[in-house]
Amino acid sequence: MFRKLVRFVEEENLFYRDEKILVAVSGGIDSVVLLQMLLKMEVNCAIAHCNFHLRGDESDGDFEFVKNLAKQYNLPFYSKDFDTKAYAESNKLSIEMAARELRYEWFNQILELENYQYIAVGHHADDVAETVLINLVRGTGIHGLTGIKSKLGKIIRPLLPFTRKELEEFAESEGLNYREDSTNRATDFVRNKIRHQVIPVLEQINPAIRKTMSENVQRFKEVEQIYNDVIEENRLHLVFQRENQLLISIARLQELPSPSSHLFEILSPYGFHHRDVRMIAKSLDSISGKRFFSSTHQILRDRKYLILSELEEYDSNEYLLEEKSGLIEFPIEMEASFIDRTPNFKFPTNPEIACLDASKLKFPLKLRKWQKGDSFRPIGMKGNKKISDFFIDQKFSLQDKENTWLLISGDRIAWVVGHRLDDRFKITQETTKIFSLELK
């Protein structure tokens, strides 16, 4: 087993012998064997133990056992008590997820403060098989079939090649003591149901099911690599960055053999799930304007693109602009100035610059977003036009509409900011003073 471990560490490039490793030790057989094998490799180790206070005296007994283990091996020892149930309730998490968040946040703090390179945890081949089965039951793609990564950021898992039976044999041969977690025998949790009820049935069909699952996982990892390469190659032609938005070409997406798979890989980092992606994919053949939301982002189905952006609260406030020159920084950045009208004055052609007759303005001006029923008189026209109709004529997307500000003088719109002036505030031959606003 020791040679197998050394070979696995080298093949997976888990760590170098001279690096400092923080070992997560619960007191169970997995973590005790992990610690022993790393010490046999003469790795510079320290022990970290979490007391989640979920099993009363048994949890306290685990703490005492691990503390004595650190003393026995003369290793640095770090421990932390957590009120796991309270954290789970306040953050609306399962106990399992709460414990995971708490321990890894604390582990990372130790790594940073004490200059350890990695945190080693005791996941093994049985955990891989259980994880794949859980993912299959809950629904998964290719990533969920690759089990548990041997190295993920600062987390390393040197025991992945070994089954629990092999760990038990090693512990017996080394005369190792360890703690048994009574909750491991309960079937209240999904993982324990898989471990105690499903895998024994599968062993009746294939006694070497754990080994077979490990081999399957290795093949899935190879397929995943091919899959990822194709996705990334196609992403270059699909996705474009525009300021703080991602644009996904609908036409190019529809040319691909599996649009949904590409969409999922692009959108899943932004909180979109398989169900969301299926709905977005169906919208590709529908009219523009549909929106889809994750907890942090939104997708707008526009004419040519799916537009991904962060969720922002719609700003319904009004902001006053006083009668003065200078830089306006909020809610949008503009440079304001007063200019004397001269015979050689040239009207700007840039729509991001507004030159208005100062005598026709009622200060303070206001900046706000558009509202239903808003209308203005586009420069050059005699009649009024609804802002909503102007947006349609200009082919504004929903996101463009929401991002557009209006400059208000009294109760009239003087400028659809960055787009069109109102005819009633234009510069004429009688104008002597010009109020200029330039978007920055």
Please name the defining characteristics of this protein:
alpha+beta, tRNA_Ile_lys_synt_N, six-stranded mixed sheet, five-stranded antiparallel sheet, tRNA(Ile)-lysidine synthase, Rossmann fold, about 450 residues, ATP-binding, tRNA processing, cytoplasm
Describe this entry's structure for a reader:
With 440 residues, this protein is α+β, with helices and mostly antiparallel strands. It folds into three domains: 2-218, HUPs (Rossmann fold, 3-Layer(aba) Sandwich), CATH 3.40.50.620; 243-310, no CATH class; 319-439, Phenylalanyl-trna Synthetase, Chain B, domain 3 (Phenylalanyl-tRNA Synthetase, Chain B, domain 3, 3-Layer(bba) Sandwich). The protein contains 14 helices and 22 strands. It has helices at 2-11, 29-40, 57-73, 84-91, 95-114, 125-138, 164-174, 190-205, 209-238, 250-255, 259-267, 274-282, 387-393, 398-403; strands spanning 20-24, 44-51, 77-81, 118-120, 151-152, 155-156, 239-242, 245-249, 291-293, 297-301, 305-310, 319-321, 326-328, 334-340, 353-357, 365-369, 375-376, 385-386, 405-409, 412-416, 420-421, 433-439. A hairpin with a 3-residue loop joins β9 and β10 (297-301). α2 crosses α7 and α6 (125-138) crosses α8 (190-205). The chain is elongated, with a radius of gyration of 32 Å. The model has no long low-confidence stretch (mean pLDDT 90). Its main location: cytoplasm. It is an enzyme of class 6 (ligase). Residues 365-437 form the Lysidine-tRNA(Ile) synthetase C-terminal domain.
